[in-house]
Amino acid sequence: MRSLMRALIFILLISILGVYCSNSKSTDLASELGIGDPVITSIDPPSGAPPIGTSPGTSITINGRLFSATASNNTITFNGVSGTVLTATSTEITTVVPSGASSGTLFLSKSGSGPIVCDKNNSSSAMNCYGTPFYIDCYKSFNNQYGDEIGVTYPNSKTFAITGQTGTVALRIDLNTEGATNVKLGCDTYLVYSKFSKSCGRTDVGDPNNTATWIYQPTITFPSYYTVQMFVTAGKGNCEISFP
């Protein structure tokens, strides 16, 4: 009786192992053939900038599984703006952040495998498409030229010092999430500034090389929420960023 029980247990274990191996082989084969919904596991780097001036867009690598190894079968959008797939394998895609891209959802969809349905939360309703957050960082194009960004979050003010005869700082300001925001650049001296739009369009106010264009403690109105990035050039002294 004991021998029979041992034999039955042995057969059961062999059966379970066989099913596991079969499923594992099926999964591996599906991955090799690119069958199934694509999955993004990481993006390197996790943020980037579109082209600014002569600086190209940030090159990024998308890692995951079940991509199409045929580059033209993969479509990438950055918050609705199409990117170009440069290279593709079943586990890795390279692309560049395109002009006009803004922070939001990066979608990777795959054609040739049935209907494509994208969902920004990548819920069960998504088919042949995967969505994941991607953040636009305009300052990446400047290689940390002005040192680390100074972070300011509405409604809290922030004070910093310009220590040289003149100096430039990089700011990252989180605006009011519920509406328009007034931002005051309250430096001791006259100043000039540059601000970037959601898609990194640059607006320069004043010329750092022409003091006749410098202005005193301007207040800038932003009509809606985003994380605005700015450069401020001022003379020696203190500056306060506030929200009047």
TrEMBL record:
Under the heading InterPro entries, the entry gives: Ig-like_fold, Ig_E-set, IPT_dom
Q: Which UniProt keywords apply?
A: DNA-binding
Signal peptide positions are none
Alphabetical list of Gene3D superfamilies matching this protein: Immunoglobulins
Q: Name one GO molecular function term.
A: DNA binding
Domain IPT/TIG, chain residue ranges per copy? 38-111
Which protein are we looking at? Answer: DNA-binding protein
Q: Which organism is it from?
A: Leptospira semungkisensis
